[in-house]
Recover the amino acids of this structure.
């Protein structure tokens, strides 16, 4: 069984030819003359917004201003069309079928694997494993690598800002194995403290599992420095790219990490597709995480020989349609260019930070320099609970997130029960930020009705 | 009706900014922790019951306006009542919040603040915020009942 790794021609051709009113994206979609933020080149959002059907939705007569991208991104028509095209024209199970539909589906499915390889600059597509989400990808590493390589007295290092998915997983492994979970603390402005990392990572450290970008503070991890410390001590590095990969050009070879996980729904793709990248020699040695069909090469009454990587880790029928549509999401991002995406987000974040600082009475968490963070701004407005803020902003058509953001230990460190969070992506504009600020003004007015004792 | 009229009425904001019976009770009959795992709201309820009467209820809460106001109003509604009367108030309040057909709350005048919470019904995700203190009180009363 050797799946063919070719571009999924049926998908791409069709998604462009379908009458969805959207033009295929090209590098020309960011316009240097029309949209600049100082000297910064911004994306041509007028064009981009037209590619996202949901963004034309009105809520109670108000334009939807979607600022919850760190939770999940919206999807362009090309991704939605790739899904329905698969179901309408070549829906079939992959890998074993000898008929045309199965062959087309296999080519499209494995074609996404090649696109992922290219997107994160992995040496081989055999190192790209599809999972349900980033959380499952971390669980795969914890259960397969972790349970066989971490023992009593060993240490696992994570940071104080980790999402529960990169926190509870390692905490439970440490508890089960009698290993110690240690934490890299943060600087005062909420960045990974590299000096502290140097004190925490030592020869007992088996793995350092760390976020590429914080989903609460936006802080971007200096991955190269963490990897250098890990290598010096003979430990592995797992990079949680759930927030990073959608927003930053990421090369696993340049970063030199052992594992990278991320999830497509945060990067214009559908829900239900995560990725685990692993160093080939590690993946070869790791036992399967789940057993069943597709992950075998031969089965006997008394024994089973497992498939080669990556299929050894993909038991059962995978999420074929969503994996194929994820390929369309990568096409879209590649057409924009990840450098342009990053530049756009720095521009929006700079503007949002400036307006929020102007607003007064806000506590803003995380770095204030947009160059040090992704497009994520967490804050609290005087004594208004973040949930109330979220509800009041919704009245103005503004979607933000409020709560602990799956980072309860970080909330405890910040001494808050939660934060309000606005997060940006390729279709967000300064106008969105202006609507958001007006909505905040209105929230302050409603809560100002009764003075505090 | 705007959101401010429905949800963020003055009564609610007043209880939020100035929660009644906020604090702790030394040596309570029961101390119960209530958590809303989805949003992370937490509260600790202290309850003193003597001779079948709810003598004192205090709350330490870290929650949103709806949660805090609902808890504050609850303490005013049940303190001084017999356990049976308090249970009756709890049941009436819960059915007002959960029963789509029931909009009026048949309560004495001094408890009419609770009616301000009716607007929460229009925002289903927030109903759990309003109910958390009440469910925690039920647990407290049950644990006092078991101690007998």
């Amino acid at each position: 069984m050797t799946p063919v790794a070719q571009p999924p021609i049926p998908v791409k051709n069709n998604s462009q030819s379908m009458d969805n009113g959207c033009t295929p994206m090209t590098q020309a979609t960011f316009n240097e003359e029309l949209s600049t933020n100082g000297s910064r080149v911004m994306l041509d959002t007028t064009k981009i917004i037209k590619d996202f059907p949901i963004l034309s939705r009105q809520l109670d007569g108000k334009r939807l201003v979607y600022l919850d991208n760190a939770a999940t991104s919206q999807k362009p028509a090309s991704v939605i069309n790739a899904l329905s095209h698969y179901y309408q024209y070549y829906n079939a199970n992959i890998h074993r079928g000898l008929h045309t539909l199965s062959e087309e589906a296999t080519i499209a499915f494995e074609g996404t694997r090649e696109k992922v390889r290219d997107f994160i600059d992995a040496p081989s597509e055999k190192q790209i494993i599809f999972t349900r989400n980033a959380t499952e990808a971390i669980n795969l590493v914890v259960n397969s690598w972790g349970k066989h390589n971490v023992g009593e007295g060993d240490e696992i290092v994570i940071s104080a800002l980790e999402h529960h998915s990169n926190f509870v997983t390692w905490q439970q492994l440490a508890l089960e194995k009698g290993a110690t979970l240690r934490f890299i603390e943060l600087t005062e402005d909420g960045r990974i403290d590299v000096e502290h990392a140097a004190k925490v990572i030592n020869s007992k450290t088996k793995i350092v599992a760390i976020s590429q970008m914080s989903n609460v503070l936006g802080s971007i991890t200096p991955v190269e420095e963490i990897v250098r410390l890990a290598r010096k001590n003979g430990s592995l590095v797992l990079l949680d790219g759930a927030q990073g990969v959608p927003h930053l050009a990421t090369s696993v070879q340049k970063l030199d990490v052992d594992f990278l996980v991320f999830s497509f729904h945060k990067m214009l793709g559908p829900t239900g597709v995560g990725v685990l990248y692993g160093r080939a020699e590690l993946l070869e040695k790791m036992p399967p995480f789940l057993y069943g069909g597709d992950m075998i090469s031969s089965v006997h009454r008394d024994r089973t020989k497992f498939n080669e990587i990556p299929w050894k880790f993909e038991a059962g029928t995978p999420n074929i349609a969503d994996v194929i549509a994820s390929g369309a999401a990568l096409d879209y991002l590649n057409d924009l260019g990840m450098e342009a995406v990053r530049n756009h987000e720095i521009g929006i974040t700079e503007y949002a930070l400036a307006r929020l600082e102007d607003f007064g009475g806000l506590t803003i968490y995380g770095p204030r320099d947009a160059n040090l963070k992704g497009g994520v701004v967490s804050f609290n407005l005087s004594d208004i609970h973040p949930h109330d803020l979220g509800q009041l902003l919704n009245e103005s058509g503004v979607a933000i997130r409020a709560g602990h953001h799956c980072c309860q230990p970080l909330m405890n460190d910040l001494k808050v029960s939660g934060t309000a969070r606005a997060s940006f992506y390729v279709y967000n504009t300064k106008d969105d930020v202006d609507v958001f600020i007006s909505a905040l003004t209105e929230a302050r007015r409603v809560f100002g009705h009764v003075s505090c004792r | 009706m705007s959101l401010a009229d429905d949800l963020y009425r003055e009564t609610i904001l007043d209880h939020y900014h100035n929660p009644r019976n906020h604090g702790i009770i030394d040596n309570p009959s029961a101390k119960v922790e209530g958590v809303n795992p989805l949003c992370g709201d937490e509260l600790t309820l202290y309850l003193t019951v003597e001779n079948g009467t709810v003598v004192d209820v205090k709350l330490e809460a870290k929650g949103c306006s709806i949660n805090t106001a609902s808890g504050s109003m609850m303490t005013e509604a049940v303190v001084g009542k017999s356990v049976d009367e308090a249970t009756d108030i709890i049941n009436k309040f819960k059915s007002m919040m959960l029963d789509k057909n029931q909009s009026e709350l048949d309560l004495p005048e001094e408890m009419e603040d609770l009616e301000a919470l009716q607007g929460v019904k229009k925002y289903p995700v927030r109903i759990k915020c309003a109910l958390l203190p009440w469910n925690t009180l039920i647990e407290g009363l049950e644990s006092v009942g078991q101690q007998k």
Summary: Chain B has one domain: 3-147.
